[in-house]
Amino acid sequence: MTDLDALKYTAEHEWVALDGDVATIGITDYAADKLGDVVYVDLPAAGTALSSGDVCGEIESTKSVGELYAPLDGEVAEVNDAVVDDPSLVNSDPFGEGWLVKVTVDPAAVAELLDRAAYVALAGGDA
């Protein structure tokens, strides 16, 4: 089980786990629940440069299509091909096997993201 308090979060309902200078990024269980059953995931390719706040992918569900925003500046180091092949992992294990991308970042930038308490407050206490 992932320690949700150790993660950082964005207002766009993404989580970030930092390991050295590599940030693993996914969407929160709150976002996955609001989207409904995820049926398609479009992610940036490895080597793609990301700019914080820019759209970098898409998550399609039976209810809607949501955009994936880059939470940090960096370069995509790895894409979770398992999620591309089986998008339902985003629903079944959003903080584990349902991660989306790993991005090489400036570790100091992660400190600017929301902590768990701030994210829960942003989500109206439902996160």
UniProtKB/TrEMBL annotation:
Signal peptide as annotated in the record: none
Alphabetized Gene3D superfamilies for the sequence: 2.40.50.100
Pfam families: GCV_H
SUPFAM superfamilies xref list: Single hybrid motif (SSF51230)
Record-annotated Lipoyl-binding domain positions: 22-104
Cofactor note: Binds 1 lipoyl cofactor covalently.
Entry annotated with the keyword Lipid metabolism: no
PROSITE patterns in the record: BIOTINYL_LIPOYL, LIPOYL
InterPro entries recorded: 2-oxoA_DH_lipoyl-BS (IPR003016), Biotin_lipoyl (IPR000089), GCV_H (IPR002930), GCV_H/Fam206 (IPR033753), GCV_H_sub (IPR017453), Single_hybrid_motif (IPR011053)
Keyword entries, A-Z: Lipoyl
Residues found modified as N6-lipoyllysine: 63
Entry cofactors: (R)-lipoate
UniProt entry tagged with the keyword Metal-binding: no
Function: The glycine cleavage system catalyzes the degradation of glycine. The H protein shuttles the methylamine group of glycine from the P protein to the T protein.
Quaternary structure, from the entry: The glycine cleavage system is composed of four proteins: P, T, L and H.
Family to which this protein belongs: Belongs to the GcvH family.
Protein name: Glycine cleavage system H protein
Lineage: Bacteria, Bacillati, Actinomycetota, Actinomycetes, Micrococcales
